[in-house]
Automatic annotation (TrEMBL):
Cell compartment(s), UniProt: Cytoplasm
EC number: 6.1.1.20
MF GO annotations: ATP binding; magnesium ion binding; phenylalanine-tRNA ligase activity; tRNA binding
InterPro entries: aa-tRNA-synth_II (IPR006195), aa-tRNA-synth_II/BPL/LPL (IPR045864), Phe-tRNA-synth_IIc_asu (IPR004529), Phe-tRNA_ligase_II_N (IPR004188), Phe_tRNA_ligase_alpha1_bac (IPR022911), Phenylalanyl-tRNA_Synthase (IPR002319), tRNA-bd_arm (IPR010978)
Catalytic activity: tRNA(Phe) + L-phenylalanine + ATP = L-phenylalanyl-tRNA(Phe) + AMP + diphosphate + H(+)
Essential cofactor(s): Mg(2+)
GO CC terms: cytoplasm
PANTHER family with a match to the protein in the record: PHENYLALANINE--TRNA LIGASE, MITOCHONDRIAL, PHENYLALANYL-TRNA SYNTHETASE
Protein name in UniProt: Phenylalanine--tRNA ligase alpha subunit
Binding of Mg(2+), residues: E256
Keywords annotated in UniProt: Aminoacyl-tRNA synthetase, ATP-binding, Cytoplasm, Ligase, Magnesium, Metal-binding, Nucleotide-binding, Protein biosynthesis
NCBIfam families for the chain: pheS
GO biological process, one term: phenylalanyl-tRNA aminoacylation
Source organism: Candidatus Gottesmanbacteria bacterium CG1_02_37_22
Amino acid sequence: MEKKLSLLLDEIKKSLEKAINVKEIDDIWISIFGQSGVFTRIIKEIQNIPKEKRPEAGKLTNQVKYNLEELFIKKRQDFSHKELENGIDVTIPGNIPKKGHLHIVTQAIFEITNIFEKIGFTKVSYPEIEWEHYAFEALNMPKDHPARDDFETFFINQPAEPKFGKMVLTPHTSSGQVREMLKVGKPPIRMINIGKCYRPNWDISHTPMFYQFEGLVIDEGINITHLKGTMDYFAKEFFGPERKTRLRPFHFQFTEPSFEVDITCGVCLGKGTLEDGKKCRICKEGWLELGGSGMVHPNVLHSGNIDSNKYTGFAFGWGIERTYMMKSGTKLDDIRLLYGNDIRFLEQF
Ligand code: DAH
């Protein structure tokens, strides 16, 4: 059958080459796919071959049929364009519009949301244009506190409001933490806040607009083991079962203690060296930095009217683009490509 099909394919290609107009192409088509056409006969023969070989034969004929159809469409279009001079050929097959797909960042947002929803987090969104109060003061970063310098911020040109301060383009999704506490009122809280953030930076690992996802869990008895368990769960779901995380002490104003979350490198799998004994160039000694996390600072709980004697919580906030770039198989070395709107780049994902 395979031989027959390949001979047929060659024969058809030859006769198509000889065809001089659309009519001749149509005649060839009928001689192949018409009621007593060669291909139609071959298809009927499938019934006579042994049962176990039929699926394979079916697959093969389908493939050849598909290739033939493509060949005919192409050939017919070529001729029809030439024949246009003699009038419009209304039988030219239409141009099939190209299928698009969601942007990779949107895909990553869906994937991350899904992973956290599976363990009971609720997805929320909070304003992109935010008060200084929620972006900083409520998060234990009073005015003039040097930590605020790390969050270079876009300010909206409007007079400050007495209680909430100036308006800013939110520099991080942490500003949703206190909003969530005030909205929910009473723990338990398990939120995943995903949104756009803004900071005036532009280089291979920064764009002035980027996405973060922020987790916040508050309840009675929440401790660091819950944070670590959640980080491990996420890393395994998003990056793969072989990946591990570690918490490295760090400092943030809104968490105490604070950590950077690291994940084992997907290239050297946490060893720091490759099979040939050379140092892994992707990571630092086997670990890659994912983002910030920590136990919610009591002052932040107070901003959200939550009793810090009764409740504790953990939080984490990471960049979506950066997290996505670290997924193995995504060889992205310049974050700006994501927003360059070059369709040739975006189509690959
Ligand atoms: N908001 C911090 C930033 O943008 C990241 C962060 C650190 C979020 C620690 C947190 C956290 O929730 O606990 O750099």
